[in-house]
Amino acid sequence: MFRGHIVLIVVLLAGTHVYSQTTTSPKPKSAVTAPKPKTVKPKKRPITRTFETQLSGFASEDSEALFARLSVQEVRAPKNWYIRGSFTRTETKNATSNHVTTQRFDSRLEQMRPNDNYNVWTGVLSRRDRHIGKKDNTSGYHFLSYGFGRQLDPKTKGDIGLGLLDVYDEPGGSKPALMSSIRIKKPLTKTLSLDGDVLVLQPLEKLSSTKVDSDLGVLHTLSPGLGLRLSWSVTNLIRPVRSSHEWDSVIRLSISYRRTSTH
Predict the structure, then answer these.
(1) Considering the entire predicted model, what is its pTM?
(2) Positive or negative CA dihedral for 45, 46, 47, 48?
(3) Whole-angstrom Cα distance, residue 243 to residue 240?
(4) 98 has which bridge partners?
(5) Mapping DSSP to helix (H, G, I), strand (E, B) and coil, where does residue 197 land?
């Protein structure tokens, strides 16, 4: 009797052992991978370039004049710059032929800082060659400065700095001079706008000899990019066309073309 029970128990245990060996354990679940964060590309700062040209001229029986100016400006934070060049030729037809040519080159580089402030490099070269009969003479100046500026309002900038000034009609070569300037570009109406540069130079060796170079203009827009500009230029840094005067003052009406692109 006991043998039969023992045999039955052994058979049951053996079957349990075989069942445990053949039973497969469940596969572990694969770990869920978190999605990779998307890389956000930094936005490119827009680059604005402005190309502008101005032309003016007239002719009569006694005289003729030609004026041309070309400027390129780029606004690319944190640096802004512009270069501008102009050429003027006047000729008087009388008993003594009088030819006067004037070349001018301006450059400016701004390094922007917080709170609408900036560091600025300014360079100016202005030269006038006069040919009267067989006599030639040259006048003009060149100037280079480094300074600081501030955006006074959305349409006006002001600079102060220190540089070297060389006036060709004055002996002594390059001399240190303080610099201050105002630049303005402001719309007046839908078709009229005011623009201008006023540069004041104060030589440190001669405080009574303040130098001014300015250009103010009103632009009347005829169509997109095209307009008429009435300007007034005043300077005492270059010998005037009429040599008997101390200041050179010119009022000019020119046609202007401007093109602005943003990238």
Answers:
(1) 0.78
(2) negative
(3) 5
(4) 92, 132
(5) strand
Strand duo 117-132 + 98-113: pairing: antiparallel
Angle at 55 between CA 225 and CA 74, to 5 degrees: 50
Please report, to the nearest 10 degrees, the dihedral formed by the alpha carbons of residues 87, 167, 73, 154 taken in order: -130
C-alpha span between 263 and 260 (Å, rounded): 10
| Residues contacting residue 40 through CB under 8 Å, at least 6 positions apart | none
- The pLDDT score that the predictor gives to residue 244 is 61
First to last CA, the chain: 103
Q: What is the mean pLDDT of each run of 10 residues along the chain (263 residues)?
A: 47 47 52 61 79 91 88 91 94 74 95 92 94 82 96 94 94 93 95 96 92 96 96 92 77 95 89
Q: Give the Cα separation of 231 and 250 in Å (integer).
A: 8
The residues, any chain, with a CB within 8 Å of residue 87's CB and separated by 6 or more, are 66, 67, 68, 69, 101, 102, 103, 104
Nearest to 145 by CA among 74, 96, 199, 71: 199
The pLDDT, as a whole number, for residue 7 is 45
Determine contact, residues 193/186, Cβ cutoff 8 Å.
yes
pLDDT at position 240? 85
At residue 30, φ and ψ (nearest 5 deg) are -70, 140
Peptide bond into 224 cis (omega under 30): no
The two structure tokens encoding residue 119: 């560091």
Residue among 51, 54, 52, 99 nearest 233 (CA): 54
Q: How many CB atoms are located within 10 Å of the residue 72 CB?
A: 14
Beta carbons within 8 Å of 220's beta carbon, 6+ residues apart? 191, 192, 227, 228, 229, 230
